[in-house]
């Protein structure tokens, strides 16, 4: 599943279409696409792993899920996976194997934009308040909670927890205040590192534990385990990461 930094890169690729008018809309997403024709793409907003194409009177939410993709100007995949295509005089956008929904402006106003880990509106103190309210939650679930850290995915989770020396099954309420603040700060900082490495095509070279087998600090074999309520893969070192 693409994480927040990858969604920002997608936004950058779609920005040239802002200000242009839709001439044709199709695809098998389950909503009426006819109202999109003749509307101008006003802006593109991102919230964690979601992208919002904002038009004159409505918006379209794109969520790439686990295997979604997109292309600009070139339809490269079978029609059966094409959820939405948008055509403009300047080119075309195609979205495949993803969730596509029409939403109104009222819905956009309900989103807590300050929860987006990579947004200028990000509020770390709000994230800390939310964490304090969930003392029995495992930190692996907390990091993946899109209401707290919108945009964080499994890669960021594993790498952040290793870098701050915390085991994924630690309870949020057991973290010392200093370690809780470190968790919040590292989640944001690593997300921007992730973005830079994606631009450089070097992301995997910087992974310390994600999909790895040996701890880069002590040389001990890493634990690979499905953790938390989401049962997502965790990679961690029992020696260099503390269980709180």
Task: Report what the structure shows.
With 244 residues, this protein is of the alpha+beta class. The protein folds into two domains: 4-108, N-terminal domain of MutM-like DNA repair proteins; 113-236, Helicase, Ruva Protein, domain 3 (Orthogonal Bundle). The chain is 27% helix and 21% strand. The protein has six helices and ten strands; from the N terminus they run αββββββββαααααββ. The protein has helices at 4-14, 105-108, 124-132, 139-144, 154-164, 177-200, and strands at 22-26, 43-47, 50-54, 59-63, 69-72, 82-88, 91-96, 99-103, 223-227, 232-236. It has a four-stranded antiparallel sheet, with helices on one face. Strands 2-3-4-8 form a four-stranded antiparallel sheet. α5 (154-164) packs across α6 (177-200). The radius of gyration is 20 Å and the shape is elongated. The model has no long low-confidence stretch (mean pLDDT 95).
Average residue pLDDT = 95
Structural class of the helices, strands and pairings? alpha+beta
Number of domain modules: 2
Q: Rough shape?
A: elongated
Low-confidence stretches: none
User: Main β-sheet: number of strands, strand sense, barrel status?
Assistant: 4 strands, antiparallel
Output the radius of gyration.
Answer: 20 Å
Q: What's the SSE pattern? A: HEEEEEEEEHHHHHEE
GO molecular function: damaged DNA binding; DNA-(apurinic or apyrimidinic site) endonuclease activity; lyase activity; oxidized purine nucleobase lesion DNA N-glycosylase activity; zinc ion binding
Keywords: DNA damage, DNA repair, DNA-binding, Endonuclease, Glycosidase, Hydrolase, Lyase, Multifunctional enzyme, Nuclease
Catalytic activity: Hydrolysis of DNA containing ring-opened 7-methylguanine residues, releasing 2,6-diamino-4-hydroxy-5-(N-methyl)formamidopyrimidine
Protein name: Endonuclease-8
């Amino acid at each position: 599943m693409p994480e927040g930094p990858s969604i920002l890169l997608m936004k950058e690729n779609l920005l040239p279409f802002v200000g242009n008018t839709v001439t044709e809309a199709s695809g098998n997403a389950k909503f009426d696409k006819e109202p999109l024709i003749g509307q101008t793409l006003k802006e593109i907003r991102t919230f964690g792993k979601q992208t919002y194409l904002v038009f004159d009177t409505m918006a379209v939410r794109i969520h790439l899920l686990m295997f979604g993709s997109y292309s600009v100007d070139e339809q490269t995949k079978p029609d059966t996976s094409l959820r939405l295509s948008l055509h403009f005089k300047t080119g075309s956008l195609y979205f495949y194997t993803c969730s596509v929904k029409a939403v109104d402006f009222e819905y956009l106003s309900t989103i807590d934009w300050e929860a987006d880990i990579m947004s200028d509106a990000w509020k770390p103190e709000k994230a800390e308040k939310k964490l304090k309210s969930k003392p029995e939650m495992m930190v692996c679930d907390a990091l993946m909670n899109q209401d707290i850290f919108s945009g964080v995915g499994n890669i960021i989770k594993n790498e952040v927890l290793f870098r701050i020396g915390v085991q994924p099954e630690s309870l949020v309420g057991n973290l010392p205040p200093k370690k809780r603040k470190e968790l919040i700060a590292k989640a944001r900082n690593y997300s921007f590192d992730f973005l830079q490495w994606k631009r450089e095509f070097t992301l995997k070279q910087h992974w310390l534990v994600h999909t790895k087998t040996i701890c880069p600090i002590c040389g001990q074999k890493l634990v690979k385990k499905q953790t938390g309520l989401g049962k997502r893969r965790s990679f961690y070192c029992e020696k260099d990461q503390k269980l709180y």
